[in-house]
Amino acid sequence: MSLSPAEINLIIKAGQDPFDPKFQTEMPVEYVLGKAEFYGHLFNVNANVLIPRIETEQIIRLGLEYIIDRKSISFADVATGSGVIGIVFAEQLNKRGVTFDGYLSDISDAAIEVAKQNLDEHLDPKHLNCFTNGINDSKLKVIRSDLLSDYPKNKKFDLIFSNLPYIPSARITQLARSVKDFEPHLALDGGVDGLDLIKKLIEQSREYLAKDGVLILEVDDTHTQEKISELGIDANAVEDEFGKNRFWIVKF
User: Fold this and answer.
1) The whole model's pTM is what?
2) Which residue in 127, 132, 126 sits closest to 144, CA to CA?
3) At what angle do helices 109-122 and 84-95 cross, to 10 degrees?
């Protein structure tokens, strides 16, 4: 197995030797290292969470465009996995002097543990309190929840992020071995059309979004504006930096 330049750079950034034989494997370098790069930071990952992709970094920028004139915001990162979206967004809010109330959630206890590790390493402790199924006055919380089912019923969010499983089931076997043989299928398989959980979250979000709030979803490149029209929702499809359909911005 030959390493790509990006993989070699990641190994070096993690303080490892790219010529070490342990990296000559079909297993993704990120899982061998236990680290993945996202938004210029190294985050903990393991086989219980997806490896964050560079395309996903744009979801942070879309969120920042939405809150550009705000001084405070309430947000949620649903199906957070390793926690990178919520953590980086909180970091960017801190840099901009925006106060926030944030939730990171996942249905997987193993993923929650990874998110907790990354929270501890990447954000000042005064801005967070990590625990499962609890609420207090801290600015950032991580909870176990099946989508929004276990969130406080009276909670309203200005912004909800989610990178749910969105790959149509029939395409799972066509994915690269490094993905289909190592990354968790729970975080990949989105059902027949890739929209099973996405449609469920859209409906749940009606109850949890504040007035003028938005839901920003990462989606499959087959989930075009035409698909949005079929669902009859108020949303815009947005391309990623590689020109592929990648995000939906949903409003109610």
Assistant:
1) 0.91
2) 132
3) 30
